[in-house]
Amino acid sequence: MMHKIFTRNRGFYNASLSLQALGDDLQVVIWGGERPHVGAVAVAEPRVSRSDPTRTSASSSVICLSGHKEDELARDAALRLAIVSRGAVAVTAGLHWDQLDADDIKDILQLCDELIRDAEAWLEEQAEIET
Fold first, then answer.
1. What is the pTM of this model?
2. Residue 70 and residue 57: Cα distance in Å, rounded?
3. Which one of 56, 70, 105, 106 is most buried, counting C-beta atoms within 10 A?
4. pLDDT tens for the chain, residues 1 to 131
Protein backbone atom coordinates (compact mmCIF):
# COMPACT_ATOMS: atom_id res chain seq x y z
CA MET A 1 0.00 0.00 0.00
CA MET A 2 1.46 3.35 -1.08
CA HIS A 3 1.98 6.13 1.46
CA LYS A 4 3.90 9.37 0.93
CA ILE A 5 4.28 12.60 2.92
CA PHE A 6 5.36 15.95 1.48
CA THR A 7 6.40 18.89 3.67
CA ARG A 8 7.09 22.51 2.79
CA ASN A 9 8.28 25.41 4.93
CA ARG A 10 8.40 29.10 4.18
CA GLY A 11 9.60 31.33 6.98
CA PHE A 12 7.20 30.95 9.90
CA TYR A 13 4.81 28.71 7.93
CA ASN A 14 4.90 24.96 7.62
CA ALA A 15 2.47 22.62 5.91
CA SER A 16 2.34 18.93 5.00
CA LEU A 17 0.37 16.73 2.64
CA SER A 18 0.05 12.98 3.00
CA LEU A 19 -1.16 10.54 0.36
CA GLN A 20 -2.47 7.12 1.29
CA ALA A 21 -3.49 4.69 -1.45
CA LEU A 22 -6.76 2.85 -0.90
CA GLY A 23 -6.76 0.46 -3.84
CA ASP A 24 -7.10 2.70 -6.90
CA ASP A 25 -8.24 5.65 -4.75
CA LEU A 26 -6.44 8.14 -2.49
CA GLN A 27 -6.93 9.55 0.99
CA VAL A 28 -5.15 12.91 1.27
CA VAL A 29 -4.60 15.02 4.38
CA ILE A 30 -3.29 18.60 4.28
CA TRP A 31 -2.34 20.09 7.63
CA GLY A 32 -0.13 22.72 9.17
CA GLY A 33 0.28 25.59 11.52
CA GLU A 34 -0.15 25.93 15.24
CA ARG A 35 -3.35 23.88 15.49
CA PRO A 36 -3.94 21.40 12.64
CA HIS A 37 -7.55 20.23 12.50
CA VAL A 38 -10.35 19.05 10.23
CA GLY A 39 -11.65 22.17 8.54
CA ALA A 40 -13.04 20.84 5.27
CA VAL A 41 -13.40 17.56 3.41
CA ALA A 42 -13.65 17.25 -0.36
CA VAL A 43 -14.20 14.19 -2.52
CA ALA A 44 -13.52 14.15 -6.25
CA GLU A 45 -13.77 11.56 -8.97
CA PRO A 46 -12.32 11.68 -12.47
CA ARG A 47 -14.55 11.80 -15.52
CA VAL A 48 -14.34 12.53 -19.21
CA SER A 49 -14.17 16.27 -19.87
CA ARG A 50 -17.47 17.69 -21.10
CA SER A 51 -15.70 20.14 -23.42
CA ASP A 52 -13.05 17.75 -24.77
CA PRO A 53 -13.71 14.01 -24.61
CA THR A 54 -9.99 13.30 -25.06
CA ARG A 55 -9.21 14.93 -21.69
CA THR A 56 -9.85 13.89 -18.11
CA SER A 57 -11.65 16.26 -15.77
CA ALA A 58 -13.17 15.71 -12.32
CA SER A 59 -16.27 16.44 -10.27
CA SER A 60 -16.26 17.17 -6.54
CA SER A 61 -18.32 17.60 -3.41
CA VAL A 62 -17.18 19.59 -0.36
CA ILE A 63 -18.16 19.79 3.29
CA CYS A 64 -16.76 22.73 5.26
CA LEU A 65 -17.08 22.89 9.01
CA SER A 66 -18.65 26.03 10.42
CA GLY A 67 -16.18 28.88 10.76
CA HIS A 68 -13.46 27.22 8.67
CA LYS A 69 -12.10 28.35 5.33
CA GLU A 70 -10.29 25.32 3.93
CA ASP A 71 -13.09 24.40 1.49
CA GLU A 72 -11.46 25.88 -1.63
CA LEU A 73 -8.11 24.32 -0.75
CA ALA A 74 -9.65 20.87 -0.19
CA ARG A 75 -11.69 21.10 -3.41
CA ASP A 76 -8.72 22.23 -5.51
CA ALA A 77 -6.51 19.45 -4.18
CA ALA A 78 -9.18 16.79 -4.67
CA LEU A 79 -9.91 17.82 -8.26
CA ARG A 80 -6.26 18.09 -9.28
CA LEU A 81 -5.22 14.81 -7.66
CA ALA A 82 -8.24 12.91 -9.05
CA ILE A 83 -7.27 13.96 -12.57
CA VAL A 84 -3.67 12.83 -12.11
CA SER A 85 -4.41 9.62 -10.21
CA ARG A 86 -7.50 8.73 -12.29
CA GLY A 87 -9.18 7.47 -9.11
CA ALA A 88 -11.46 8.84 -6.43
CA VAL A 89 -9.74 11.21 -3.99
CA ALA A 90 -10.85 12.28 -0.51
CA VAL A 91 -9.04 15.32 0.93
CA THR A 92 -9.19 16.49 4.54
CA ALA A 93 -7.66 19.94 5.09
CA GLY A 94 -7.03 21.92 8.26
CA LEU A 95 -4.37 24.57 8.84
CA HIS A 96 -4.32 27.27 11.49
CA TRP A 97 -2.15 30.20 12.50
CA ASP A 98 -3.31 33.07 14.70
CA GLN A 99 -3.65 36.66 13.44
CA LEU A 100 -3.05 36.21 9.72
CA ASP A 101 -3.33 39.11 7.30
CA ALA A 102 -4.11 38.91 3.57
CA ASP A 103 -0.42 38.57 2.62
CA ASP A 104 0.04 35.72 5.12
CA ILE A 105 -2.95 33.87 3.67
CA LYS A 106 -1.58 34.35 0.15
CA ASP A 107 1.79 32.87 1.25
CA ILE A 108 0.09 29.88 2.91
CA LEU A 109 -2.06 29.18 -0.15
CA GLN A 110 1.07 29.30 -2.32
CA LEU A 111 2.75 26.86 0.06
CA CYS A 112 -0.25 24.51 -0.24
CA ASP A 113 -0.23 24.85 -4.03
CA GLU A 114 3.42 23.76 -4.02
CA LEU A 115 2.51 20.72 -1.91
CA ILE A 116 -0.25 19.76 -4.34
CA ARG A 117 2.19 20.18 -7.27
CA ASP A 118 4.69 17.94 -5.45
CA ALA A 119 1.98 15.30 -5.03
CA GLU A 120 0.88 15.60 -8.68
CA ALA A 121 4.47 15.15 -9.90
CA TRP A 122 5.04 12.17 -7.61
CA LEU A 123 1.81 10.48 -8.74
CA GLU A 124 2.81 10.99 -12.37
CA GLU A 125 6.20 9.41 -11.65
CA GLN A 126 4.51 6.45 -9.97
CA ALA A 127 2.22 5.98 -12.98
CA GLU A 128 5.24 5.93 -15.30
CA ILE A 129 6.98 3.33 -13.13
CA GLU A 130 3.90 1.10 -13.27
CA THR A 131 3.71 1.19 -17.08
1. 0.94
2. 22
3. 70
4. 589 999 999 888 999 999 999 999 999 999 999 999 999 999 999 999 999 999 999 999 999 999 999 999 999 999 999 999 999 999 999 999 999 999 999 999 999 999 999 999 999 998 888 77
E strand or H helix that includes residue 27? strand 25-33
- Which residue, among 89, 76, 78, 81, has the nearest Cα to 23 in the 3D structure? 89
Q: Which residues of 66-105 are buried (b: 16+ CB within 10 A; e: fewer)?
A: eebebbebbbbbbbbbbbbbebbbbbbbbbeeeeeeeeee
